[in-house]
Automatic annotation (TrEMBL):
Gene3D superfamilies: Bulb-type lectin domain, Phosphorylase Kinase, domain 1, Transferase(Phosphotransferase) domain 1
Annotated protein name in UniProt: Receptor-like serine/threonine-protein kinase
Residue ranges annotated for the Bulb-type lectin domain, each copy included: 28-153
Enzyme class: transferase
Family: Belongs to the protein kinase superfamily. Ser/Thr protein kinase family.
Length: 858
């Protein structure tokens, strides 16, 4: 092409070069002495794992220099280290990160140093360079030296921010007097050091991990157990096959660190703004971070998490709420879930003791708000008093008293100053006490004595006139409404009005139950309009219908942005649904795991109850498992991954989620498969919430599905985590054999699938249990181990069944020897008992065989 004929060609090339200069990352992984980093320039580690550059954590934030996972590794921008977290810069294009005087220094737009590696100049006689390693460690070393053979002059791993990466240290160096501490961000959009920190205890001979809120310790890991390689108060460290934990101590330093068994796993340990330490792993399938575990397990164990006059609630999606009569001091921080600023009074206290000014005589006295089942705050003073009314009087007559509590056994407790570390307890927790919060009257202050007398007369006249007006208006309305009602009755409309009133009352109750009792939604889920649902499903057209269960039909919907969703609509004819709707709405909104179905939102409008889920392209597991034409899609590799995924999902709800949950209806039709055949547990309508320390419970309302119920639950309504373990065992045997448990009492000699498999196993014919479609191609040792684990899960005695963490360990570890199993429950007619025969329980059997698939009888 003749460039002379196109005069714009050279200009365009110039613009392109300028653009590339400001946006392309620097060569390789290094900032050398003659190079600098500014604007949108970055450096990337050798294998492209981590990236370093300027970033803005929020829309209106300043700029920081930090390290994050590269987009090729983690699609979601995730910051793991921040250099200048206390002093941001306003303009990243005018600010420069470069080598100067043997240090890596960040200069602001005014050329002022705002952050430095702070090495003494005498320690770096030659030129140096900064190198970003694939471990996420930024090291400063002498130019030309090898990172593998020489100690770095400085490294970011010695100065962690809020994240500990594999290979990083948490401890202290006796020689350099340097301590590695993880400190939370101030909020999700402010990397400045927050209130919460984690460090290795520098005192004593034993190693402890200690959590702090400012200078207040609120959690400890317990001492390091060198034999088990865990901290004594964190036994779950023993029950994983992903991490290797280490505690190193010598004359120079002591530190805690961890590594990964699989180097390809992406994981990080974060001191979160919630005050919890959280371990995350990246899921390549779902393209999101999954929570592996957290400490303390309960959010409300974090000291003063909600600030002054804020109440922590473990069972609410919104962890913190201001007490009645209070409001957040900073709405912006609370919207970012940074609650430490606490709450302030909406109305000041009005009355204080007996020494009251004349004007105060016309003030209404302060009142007390009763809040039940609360943990008591700090700063209490015990007072020997006879009854609760005297306790309240003492508080009312003390200017500094802000709350009181009375118990017949412990007497009167008076609280002064800010109310800290408040917690709303569950109904089953015995330690809860009724707390009486002091509130100011809402009546206005009358300025002076003369003005008070005059204003008091005016006020009385005004209030009397207002009362007469209201009374007159009421009688006028009554008369008008009476005529209207008579007219409607004449026209046959009264029944319609009554029906509308009942519907409105029902949905008002649902909305109030969804929220915090004040009609405020605390699910953090979008509330969709019925119009948007109708548009997404083409008015619930049959062409969009993908299945139906006891709850009602399920439709495929397309939301704006071409997002596919599954829309579950409560059938008006459904005998079940209202309670299950509430259960799913409250539970699934609080659960986040790659092996649990995600709830996107809900709709409550007119007479509709609708839930919106992520769409599972491959429907439910039973459609592949029990259909001869479909089961060929399930090779052994896919089956084993499905087994592992289901186990991980159950372990999460039992142990690592915010709520301890028993599913109670685990079966093949309630396991959905995404486009990559990854399993996701669904249908939490029958699930039950347990207290954190609760291990078992009884019910008079047995719910679930025949064949998947454990004996103690089916007969006596007694359930625990072991109920889900039993159901998992049945499901595991179904996946291995390709046979449906429910079919055996009709077509086989044995009552159950487990009984049939057990007979073959005892005769040495275990291979015949494996589905014929995968029998020749599967890993025989792996499949036989799955059968053994299935037998262990369906034992008669709950104590003989393993926990889900043990199940995962048995499945994952080839070297693990399995304990011997006894004859499975319900394997013969001898040990079978019909559910309906028990006079102690009322069975509610699920007829929702398939969540997003065609209905199927049992």
């Amino acid at each position: 092409m003749d460039t002379k004929s196109n005069p714009k060609f050279g200009f365009n090339i110039l613009l392109l070069c300028l653009f590339l200069k400001s946006h392309i990352s620097l060569a390789a992984d290094t900032i050398s002495a003659d190079e600098s980093l500014s604007g949108d320039q970055t450096i990337v580690s050798a294998d492209g794992v981590f990236e370093l550059g300027f970033f803005k954590p929020g829309i209106f934030s300043y700029n920081y220099v930090g390290i994050w996972y590269s987009e090729q590794v983690v699609s979601e921008r995730t910051i793991v280290w921040v250099a200048n977290r206390e002093i941001p810069v306003a303009d990243r294009f005018s600010s420069v990160l470069r080598i100067s005087d043997g240090n890596l220094i960040l200069f602001s737009e005014s050329k002022t140093p705002v952050w430095s590696t702070n090495l003494a100049s005498t320690t770096t006689s030659g030129s140096v360079q900064a190198v970003l390693l694939d471990s996420g460690n930024l090291v400063l070393r002498a130019d030309g030296s090898s990172t593998n053979t020489s100690e770095p002059l400085w490294q970011s791993f010695d100065h962690p921010a809020h994240t500990l990466l594999p290979g990083g240290k948490l401890g202290f160096n006796i020689v350099t007097n340097r301590t590695q501490i993880l400190t939370s961000w101030k909020s999700s959009e402010d990397p400045a050091p927050g209130l919460f920190s984690l460090q290795l205890d520098p005192n004593g001979s034993n190693a402890y991990l200690i959590f702090w809120n400012r200078s207040r310790q609120y959690w400890s890991s317990g001492a390091w157990d060198a034999k088990s390689r865990i901290f004594s108060w964190v036994p779950e460290m023993r029950r994983n096959n992903m991490y290797n934990y280490s505690y190193v101590t010598n004359k120079n330093e002591s530190y805690y660190t961890y590594s990964l068994n699989n180097p390809k796993t992406i994981s990080r340990l974060v001191m979160h703004t919630s005050g919890q330490i959280r371990q995350f792993t990246w899921s390549e399938n779902s393209r999101e971070w999954n929570l592996f575990g957290s400490q303390p397990k309960r959010q409300c164990e974090v000291y003063d998490f909600c600030g002054a006059s804020g109440s922590c609630n473990e069972l609410s999606t919104v962890s913190c709420n201001c007490l009645t009569g209070f409001e957040p001091k900073s709405e912006i921080e609370w919207n970012l879930r940074a609650y430490s600023s606490g709450c302030s009074r909406i109305t000041n206290l009005q009355y204080c003791g007996t020494a009251v000014s004349t004007s105060a005589k016309y003030r209404a006295p302060d009142v007390f708000q009763e809040i039940r089942i609360m943990s008591l705050p700090e700063n209490n003073q015990s007072v020997v008093i006879g009854n609760i009314s005297e306790c309240g009087s003492i508080c009312l007559n003390s200017c500094s008293c802000t709350a009181y509590a009375y118990d017949s056994s412990t007497g009167c407790s008076i609280f002064t100053g800010d109310l800290l570390n408040l917690q709303q307890l569950g109904t089953g927790e015995r330690s809860g006490t009724t707390l009486y919060i002091r509130l100011g009257s809402a009546l206005p202050l009358l300025k002076s004595v003369n003005a008070n007398k005059r204003s008091l007369v005016i006020a009385l006249v005004s209030e009397t006139a207002g009362l007469l007006t209201i009374t007159f208006g009421y009688f006028l309305w009554k008369k008008t409404w009476g005529k209207e009602r008579a007219r409607r009755r004449k026209n046959g409309e009264t029944k319609t009005l009554e029906k509308e009133r009942k519907h409105r009352k029902k949905y008002d109750e649902i909305l109030s139950n969804v929220g915090d009792g004040d009609g405020k939604n605390d699910t953090e889920l979008p509330l969709f309009s019925l119009r948007s649902i109708l548009a997404a499903t083409n008015n619930f057209s049959e062409a969009n219908k993908v299945g139906e269960g006891g709850f009602g039909p399920v439709y495929k919907g397309i939301l704006p942005g071409n997002q596919e969703v599954a829309i579950k609509r409560l059938s008006k004819k459904s005998g079940q649904g209202h309670q299950e709707f509430m259960n799913e709405l409250k539970l699934i909104a609080k659960l986040q795991h790659t092996n649990l179905v995600r709830l996107f939102g809900y709709c409550i409008e007119e007479e509709e109850l609708i839930l919106i889920y992520e769409f599972m392209a491959n429907r439910s597991l039973d459609k592949f498992l029990f259909d001869p034409s479909e089961k060929l899609e399930l090779d052994w590799g896919k089956r084993f991954r499905i087994i592992e995924g289901i186990a991980q999902g159950i372990l999460y709800i039992h142990k690592y989620s915010r709520l301890k949950i028993i599913h109670r209806d685990l079966k093949a039709s309630n396991v959905l498969l995404d486009g990559a055949m990854n399993p996701k547990i669904s249908d939490f309508g029958m699930a039950k919430i347990f207290e954190i320390n609760q291990t078992e419970a009884n019910t008079n309302r047995v719910v679930g599905t025949y064949g998947y119920m454990s004996p103690e639950y089916a007969r006596y309504g007694h359930f625990s985590e072991k109920l889900d373990v039993f159901s998992f065992g049945v499901l595991l045997l179904e996946i291995v054999s390709g046979k449906k448990n429910a079919a055996f009492h009709r077509f086989e000699h044995s009552l159950t699938l487990a009984g049939w498999a057990w007979e073959l196993w005892r005769e040495g014919r275990g291979m015949e249990v494996i589905d014929a479609s995968v029998r020749e191609t599967c890993r025989h040792d792996e499949a036989l181990k799955c059968i053994q684990v299935g037998f262990l899960c369906v034992q008669e005695d709950p104590a003989d069944r393993p926990t889900m963490s043990s199940v995962i360990l048995m499945l994952a570890n080839e070297a693990t020897s399995l304990p011997p199993s006894k004859e499975p429950a319900f394997s013969t007619h001898r040990n079978s008992v019909a559910v309906s025969s028990s006079p102690q329980t009322t069975p509610i059997i699920s007829n929702n065989a398939v969540t997003i698939s065609l209905p199927e009888g049992r």
